[in-house]
Amino acid sequence: MFVASEIHMTDSPPPLQDIRVLDLSRILAGPSCTQLLGDYGADIIKIERPAVGDDTRRWGPPFLRNGQGEDSQESAYYLSANRNKRSLTVDMGSERGQQIIQQLAAQSDIVIENFKVGGSRKFGLDYDTLKEFNPRLIYCSITGFGQTGPYADQAGYDFMIQAMGGIMSLTGPVDGEPYKVGVGIADVMCGMYACTAILAALQHREKTGEGQTIDVALLDSQVAWLVNSAQNYLTSGQAPERYGNGHPNIVPYEVFPSADGYFALAVGNDAQFARFCAEIGQAELAIDQRFASNAQRIIERKQLIPILRKALVAETTAHWLERFRAAGIPSGPVNTVPQVFEDPQVLHRGMKLQMPHPHRDGEQIDLIGNPVRFSQSPVRYRHPPPTLGQHSDDILGQQLGLSEQEIAALRDQGVI
Q: What pLDDT is attached to residue 6?
């Protein structure tokens, strides 16, 4: 397991050093985007409502426990998407609060928001207003359905977007009800699309000096990552079937039972299939014309899979995985989440890390690592997920030059 303070650093600066992001988003899509930008070195100023903060702070249990073993106001959900940020509480409903955010936008490279369409305008935080302070501003809006279209005014949430965007029609048992993916994948993928768009907009600004708006929608993102399943339909005109753990274009490529559990098998080509058949004592299947090619195996899926299941259930998962790995046949255990974070490969790659947290009096807490490995400008883990308003005084003093007395007056007035 990586401890953030022990991660090797090169002399190279992080890729987004000197880039400042004003984060007006909440929940998951926007925060997951800004966490990535923060990991790459950007200074993320997270704007939160005084006394309340990001909704997800209270989306528990479980909550982070403080040094006395008591629940804090930081849920595990919140901790998952808010590393490498600084928290400033501002009442954007007040005129002074709006002025503070506008001043920060004037000093920022990027603003990210997830208001309903038109919602930022009533606070004076829309692009047209902020670009007057900062013509080079890159302004990213994340919404359920985008800034245009018949659904633009509707709110969008991950679960309903998974339903509307088609993924639930493809997920779950073959003969069962539709299933959502077990994590908020519509939100997360939207955040990733937003992150890549922002990086492209930064490159455009580097070449031209121009800022711009970016319109990213949960539904659009969900449709985009239907990828091959959607293209199967667009190419054939046939609605994709639900295959449970199976694959629409590769067979065998699914979960199989063993004598003591389950494992995942991913036979990607005909040569692998021939080796697989030899390992399970069914070499004749590889030369059977019904199964010799992947195209034929897709057609004869219902004939082949029961034969394989009958053979594989005769031995344990460990038995098969050892044989398949030795033969170069892609396979793996069906791990629980605890097993994932005990896996030596996962630990070696730093996907479980520790950072000190104020609620633990500086003691380490466990977090999920960033999956990207740069050779010259590695990811920096600089700030644990901040407590509510943890950096308000620093940001207002350092960025806006306010005195301690002015900051205290803003706090007394309920502005921060």
A: 53
DSSP state of 152: T
Neighbouring CB atoms inside 10 A of 18's CB total 10
How far is the C-alpha of 54 from the C-alpha of 295, rounded, in Å? 50
Domain membership of residue 213 (yes or no) is: yes
Tokens 């073959």 map to which residue? 174
- Note whether residue 305 is domain-resident: no
- The catalytic residue positions are 187
DSSP string, 310-364: HHHTTS-HHHHHHHHHHTT--EEE---HHHHTT-HHHHHTT-EEEEE-GGGTT-E
Q: Please enumerate in sequence order all residues whose Cβ is within 8 A of that of 293, keeping only pairs 6 or more positions apart, or say none.
A: 270
Burial of 36 (0-12, 13-18, 19+ CB in 10 A): buried
Question: The domain that contains 213 carries what CATH number?
Answer: 3.40.50.10540
Host domain of residue 7:
2-225+371-412
Q: Is the pLDDT of residue 67 over 90?
A: no
**Residue 162: inside a domain, yes or no?**
yes
Task: Tell me, yes or no, whether 216 lies in a domain.
Answer: yes
Helix (H) or strand (E) segment spanning residue 366: strand 364-368
Provide the domain count of the chain: 1
- The per-residue pLDDT for range 342-391, each reduced to its tens digit, is 999 999 999 999 999 988 888 899 999 999 999 999 999 999 999 999 99
Quick one: tokens of 235?
């190419």
